[in-house]
Amino acid sequence: DDNPHVHRKLRLIAQPVSKSAVPDTRDLEELIKLLHNHPTGQMVRCSKVRAMFAMQASCMSSMIGMPLNRSQTSTILTHMGTIDQPWNCPHGRPMMRHLFDMTNLQPL
């Protein structure tokens, strides 16, 4: 509703807690704004929680130079194919998929 005099009520039933981030009043205000500006049913998260998830994702990710077997490579490529922006990590660093068939590689 665009009427500034119409108020909607929210009920906070739990506060998420993590070792690295505890949401505060500013985070709650940001979340309320996000809820107001996004369609009903769409997932919203405040910036502190998004940063926390990005950090956790990076800790579990494969890094440059890490050897991967065929199954791990297949799993990663399958998962990357399901996300909206597979060319960037959660922190915004660029990622690239280079596919190379090593079966035809000749020894030096």
TrEMBL record:
Domain of life of the native organism: Eukaryota
InterPro entries in UniProt: MutL/Mlh/Pms-like (IPR038973), MutL_C_dimsub (IPR042120), MutL_C_sf (IPR037198)
Protein name: MutL C-terminal dimerisation domain-containing protein
